[in-house]
Amino acid sequence: MAASYVALLALFVSLPLLLLIFWKHWQREHTARHVFVVVLGDVGRSPRMQYHALSLAKCGFSVTLLGFCNSKPHDELLQNDRIRIVHLTELQRLAVGPHILQYGVKVVFQAVHLLWKLMCREPAAYIFLQNPPGLPAIAVCWFVGCLCGSKLVIDWHNYGYSIMGLVHGPSHLLVLLAKWYEKLCGRLSHLNLCVTNAMREDLAENWGIKAVTVYDKPASFFKETPLDLQHWLFMKLGRTYPVFRASAEPSDPATERSAFTERDAGSGLVTSLRGRPALLVSSTSWTEDEDFSILLAALEKFEQLILDGESLPSVVCVITGKGPLKEYYNRLVDQKHFRHVQVCTPWLEAEDYPLLLGSADLGLCLHQSSSGLDLPMKVVDMFGCCLPVCAVTFQCLHELVKHEENGLVFKDSEELAAQLQMLFTKFPDPSGKLNQFRKKLQESKQLRWDESWKQTVLPLLMDT
Questions:
Q1: Is the separation of the CB atoms in 346 and 322 below 8 Å?
Q2: What's the sign of the alpha-carbon dihedral 437, 442, 445, 447?
């Protein structure tokens, strides 16, 4: 009698799941052009996955993009009728209990929540997943793929365990568990993409995973910003951030003036201000893999050169982004007593960020890969805007930045300060090194994301 009750209970529990699986498989025949794009992070700060979604939509797929919605994505994505964004709830870490218990509760919640969100949507032919973060997303997406017949595509941006290692140390139990999980579950995918050849080789040799390198490429909206649009941007930002405001008001009240540009009241013509400061730009997630103390030390050395009488401009350094270490570095900036250097740390709207890069004089990159195998997308975007770059060196940076060809590479604040001095001596000098780098970038005719994606990713989808 007891056995029959157990059998009945098992049937009662399994029947809904079996019916759901049957329904999903039946639906899949009618939704072969549907794709999930999953980001267990902020969609607005995940440009590569936004680009995947846009490229899939342009190739006729309907796309469901799942992720946290803390920041506004690009308007092009929001306005695309083929892309639907599904909000995932982000569980903040518990304030009580051991750290490993807090992390465990968060992982379990994310696993159940993501599973529910995926199973409640029409099934997809493919699930594109960003890694990291891959815990618990890889296992969940693989399970959903098994139930619904979807093919899992993992896009390896880095290794999640290596990022955790920056915080906890490489031998911490959480880091070791994360590495084991990532290595095990990473082999469950049908297709793997990665961001560098160095990562592709490492995945093959140490993980037994065959991947295809899909280099980051700038989207079409990363380009040089016309002077009148620069002026509009500076005036807009000046309403919130004083570094963009003019240091002195024009004699004609009808004339608009920013820290860098001026619009003539009569003709409406925009010109660059004589003696304007140089505009340096960087972007960051304010995490442990970027040491901005290197930049601050270099800026101190640069200011001392100005005080010593060198022919150098004042500098406005804009560092965009959000992240856990932002307040720490803001406090460091406040402790400095700069006279010729201004540092600003805004969060920009998605549409303003490309305009700022296209308006700047020099891009800066402090990204030091936690694995040594990924490349900074910010540099790709800067190159798209024909913006010369100084970048801190690490293992595979040469796949993107070629020293003395399309930018400069430095290893410490001394080298960066020397590069800033060399690039900005007699600024703005049309024949200077800074403009030489810019002309090389203008002449390079870089491949854009859409063309690159159609050449590398689309054929892979057709073959799987």
A1: no
A2: positive
Token pair in block for residue 110? 């994310």
Q: Note the pLDDT of residue 5.
A: 47
Residue 388: partners with Cβ closer than 8 Å, 6 or more residues away: 362, 363, 406, 407, 408, 423, 434, 437, 438, 441
CA angle 321, 197, 364 (to 5 degrees): 30
Helix, coil or strand: residue 86: strand
DSSP H stretches of helix in 239-376: 293-307, 326-335, 352-357
> pLDDT higher for 240 or 1?
240
Q: How many CB atoms lie within 10 A of CB 320?
A: 18
423-432 per-position pLDDT tens digit: 999 898 888 8
Q: How confident is the model over 309-346, as pLDDT tens digits?
A: 999 999 999 999 988 999 999 999 999 989 999 999 99
pLDDT at 414 over 70: yes
User: What residues have CB less than 8 Å from 253, skipping those under 6 apart?
Assistant: none
φ and ψ of 22, to 5 deg: -60, -45
Q: What is the pTM of this model?
A: 0.86
In whole angstroms, what is the distance from residue 440 CA to residue 438 CA?
5
